[in-house]
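Re: beginner question about structure tokens

> Can someone show what the tokenized structure looks like for a real chain? I only ever see the sequence side.

Sure, here's an example I had lying around. Input first:
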Amino acid sequence: GNFKLNGLPKGNYILLVTIPKYADYVELFELGTSEIHDFKKIHLSTKAIILQEIIVRQTPIRIKGDTTEYKADSFRVKPNATVEDLLKELPGIQVDKDGKITAQGQSVQKILVDGEEFFSDDPTIAIRNLRADAIDKVQVFDKKSDQASFTGIDDGQTTKTINLELKENARRGYFGKVAVAALNQYYNSQAFINSFKGKRKLSAFIVASSTEKTGLNFEESSSYGFDDDNVSVDEGSGTIFITSEGEDDLGTQSYAGEGLPESLKAGLHFSNKWNRDAQNMNGNYLFNKLAEHGAANSFRQNTLKDSLYYNRQNVDRYSDKLRHTLSGIFETQIDSSSWLKITAKGHAGIFENIDHVESEALTAENQLANRSIRNNTNKGDNLSIDVNALYRKRFEKKGRTVSLNINSKTYQSSHKGYLQNESFFYLNSLQRDTIDQHKTNSGDQHILSGRITYTEPLSNKSFLEINYSYSNNNSSIKRLTYNKDIDSKFSVLIDSLSNDFDYGVHTHSAGINYRFNEKKYYFSFGGNIANTHFNQTDVVKDSSRKYDYTNLFPQAVFNFKFNAYSNLNIKYTGITNQPTIHQLQPIKNNNDPLNILVGNPNLKQEFENTLQLGYTNYQVLNERYLILNSFLVHTSNMISSSYIIDPLGRRIYQSINTDNGYAVTFAGGYSIRIPNTAARLSFGPSLNYSKYSNLINGLNNSTQTTNFLFRINAKIAKSEKYDFYATIIPSLNRSISSISAAATTKFTNYNFNTGGNITLPAKFEMGTDININLREKVNKYDVNNNVVLVNAYVEKRFLKNEVLSLRLSINDILNQNKGYDRFITPFYTEEKTFLTFKRYGLIGLTYNFVNKGGKVSTEDGTIRL
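And the corresponding structure tokens:
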């Protein structure tokens, strides 16, 4: 046919020609004033011919709302690679040697598979055992609470989460692997199987190891309590963090690289959906057993006014822990407008620790102040139950909802042990002190809370949320210490070291929040007013203390989308942190007789303001991304610490409230694929600054801590040929004390990491990684802690699709590895070396199996097996 269009104004145009069964024809052209543009003959090709010749390039990264989505097949990994291997290829995601995942500058706390919990909160199970070729999409997002997801109004509670969306053919049949590796006294064996049938998932695994590959060392989110260390900076990651005391719960933090572990871990996972997804269930069982031998040497430089005070300590430890954990989720759609979700998790465990500690204290003049030799034994058990029920209902008017959440938590622990100690004091005259005591401790915590939330639409774009909640938190802790009687039996109660203490916190809270949604942006703001009643009871002294607080908890969120690949997010929250019962209990804890902890029943709560600013920008075509994240934390009435050095050189400390504290964190990342190459370059800074106060011998001390590091990473890879990388991380660290110029600490560290692998003929592969740590000395007692760590392997693959592999690996070829940590706190700088794995080898055999049966019907999409 012939076509003619008249009267078009001057400008740029697109011509689009479409005919059924033919490929679309598109041409861009410019039309001037009074100009005739003749396309002459336009030749169209049939779709059948085009499909034979076209090469489709899919977009590797997409931003969908608050979710960054990676198309897994766009990133090449070697055959039989795991999800962990895949994540290392994705821009904006880093996975360290222990399996810790960082996405967009934040620690990933949860891994989902098809949106469902997978083996509870141990992400290493999923990323190290699921196959990369089973994954269709990897989605990274801040998972909102169930309530916020339902109402659409942000409540400030988010968890950095990765969701692994399976390919359709991976949802049927089974796949897994079996691996056995051993040499001399070292072994590392595992088996993992997944059986998927539609929406039903059934998985099981077992890991037995005497190496660092325990599968137990993924770091969870930071805890929110304070001990005497308060705030410190990890020299390796540059992270400022807050620590809390408490029993090791044999969770995913149970092995962090210190000591020589021997572990057995096993688990079962089941999930399914029925009745067109109206009901679904998710269940997990985990068994953990971890035995560990640890040894450590530490040197601590304490801060005093215009002087220093030193401690040396040698520790030899044996520990054995066992835990059973059950968790489950059941969700049902009651009718077309209401849902019920029940979540339950519980564990039961036992533990035993044996510690042998030798320590000494030195004055600034290097004079011996005291020394001690002590043995601690501890044996006990713990139990935890957490049940949550959430009811949600939508009304006929769009946006009008009501939800009710009820939660019950119970935690119980008990343990007993013995303390034997011999101390010598040298400052004035030689004195000797011995301790031989039996200790029993037990604790209970019961929390019952409820929250009701109502949302009302004000327009198509704006919503109002009204909520009320109540929480009843009752804790008790009993610590009893006994001396021997004349018959050498532990029956004489020591009053100063014994106490029975109850702590109750009851809170009523009401709030209102407003949210406005636009296509390019949304914002919400509001807050809660809460009245909290505290009741502390000293059962032994028959005394109590009651007090109340009324607080305002403001929060605001603003999110702006510049386009589909660029996003700005600003968030503010205000919360309170309550003192723990361990900090409040008014007794001495002499487990370390040279460092005595005293409880403080007069502690008050602190208030924490957090401002977060984040910016993300992706350029998909050139595979460039830019991520900026910053946090500002201000804490008023902060729970900090006070310590004194008594005339015998002992350190006596307790928690106190101090002035305002500040912490600032900034992290950035930029990555780009170098044009016309297989190389990628990424780099970014990380800055952490904090300012906190404490009391030292009755004097107010303000400590400023700064850590700056810059990460540069280069990577080049060619599928099934080679894969090489290099990383350089220089870091600067500084700590300044207001009362002591001598306590000022400055040092620089350099970390170089390089390695890779290359595929050789006859299905051979060899690889290596080299890690060089150069650490500047900080005082005259420091020794050379530089390390050059070299690991290597050679692997031969067999059978069709290379599903069988034989590998010889050597860890720490130069036999230089040493465990090392350096910490900066407001009170001291500490260097610590500890027992860890040195040179060893493994010979391993791994078999990957896949059986993907079944077909997908083209009529209704149902899986036929």
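Each token stands for a local structural state, so reading them left to right follows the chain. The chain has five helices and 48 strands.
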